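in:
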């Protein structure tokens, strides 16, 4: 296949080059920095009768035997098992994440910690012996149970035979696939969790007064008119005073349901004034909030170790 692909690439390059050289010098000055002349074309090769690529003389039985000796996919059971294992790995990546980032409602800090702890416990169960790992073990046992003596004998008792057999190589490959699946899921989960937290963190905050605060978020996307269902003049025959009332109400509703509006606060905090204090305090200190988010992150990473 390498020779076929190389021959195809060379053919396509030659077609592009010949087409470019047929252009005028004015068109070529921006494409080719110097006057490029190619040697005379070689005489065309004789068209082969069969659409096959010639290969050097070789001992096919010996080459095929060496291939079978080194390849794992020489039995239907091994191929079927690998397909099912890959399917389970893909299903785990699609339907599972370490952290729960689907909840965008305002919540208490303890409630956030509880939701994330539940998601982390679920991923630990889904990837454990009762979930993903158990399914892979069942696939391997079911696929190779009736193979009998040979390369993939799961009932082999001799350690030396197992070391030189293909079952060890197959299990090593499965181990690499599992590691890659866990690594990919961890990276995607961490990325989504970071984006989830940063979505509620403004890049700039302007405090005008105790009741007037303006936040600037950097994660907003540029919306086109098609992204909004707001209309400036839906009824042109409406009276002027009614139009003003309609426009003010429509704008107010638009700010509530706009696809690109500022996110609601992630945490709900209370201001508490204890007896003898002049300055109120938050129900959850900011340092405690940051610590609990970091604890959730560390707990999620440790569950897969």
């Amino acid at each position: 296949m390498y020779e076929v692909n190389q021959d195809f690439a060379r053919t396509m390059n030659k077609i592009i080059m010949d087409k470019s050289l047929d252009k005028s010098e004015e068109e070529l000055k921006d494409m080719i920095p110097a006057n490029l002349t190619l040697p005379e074309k070689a005489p065309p090769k004789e068209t082969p009768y069969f659409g096959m690529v010639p290969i050097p003389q070789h001992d096919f039985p010996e080459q095929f035997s060496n291939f079978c000796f080194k390849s794992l996919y020489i039995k239907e059971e091994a191929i079927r098992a690998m397909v099912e294992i890959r399917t389970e790995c893909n299903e785990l990546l699609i339907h599972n994440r370490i952290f729960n980032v689907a909840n965008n409602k305002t919540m208490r800090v303890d409630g956030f910690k509880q939701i994330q702890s539940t998601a982390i416990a679920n991923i630990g169960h889904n990837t454990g012996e009762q979930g993903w790992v158990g399914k892979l073990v069942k696939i391997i046992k079911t696929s190779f149970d009736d193979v009998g003596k040979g390369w993939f004998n799961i009932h082999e008792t001799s350690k030396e035979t197992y070391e030189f057999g293909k079952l060890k190589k197959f299990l090593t490959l499965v181990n690499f696939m599992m590691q890659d699946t866990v690594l990919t899921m961890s990276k995607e989960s961490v990325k989504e969790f970071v984006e989830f937290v940063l979505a509620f963190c403004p890049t700039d905050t302007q405090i005008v007064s105790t009741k007037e605060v303006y936040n600037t978020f950097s994660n907003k996307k540029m919306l086109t008119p098609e992204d909004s269902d707001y209309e400036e003049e839906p009824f042109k025959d409406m009276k002027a005073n009614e139009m003003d009332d309609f426009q003010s109400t429509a704008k107010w509703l638009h700010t509530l349901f706009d696809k690109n509006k500022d996110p609601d606060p992630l945490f709900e905090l209370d201001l508490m004034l204890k007896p003898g204090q002049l300055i109120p305090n938050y129900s959850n200190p900011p340092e405690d909030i940051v610590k609990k988010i970091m604890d959730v992150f560390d707990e999620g990473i440790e569950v897969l170790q």
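note: Residues 77-220+263-305 form one domain.
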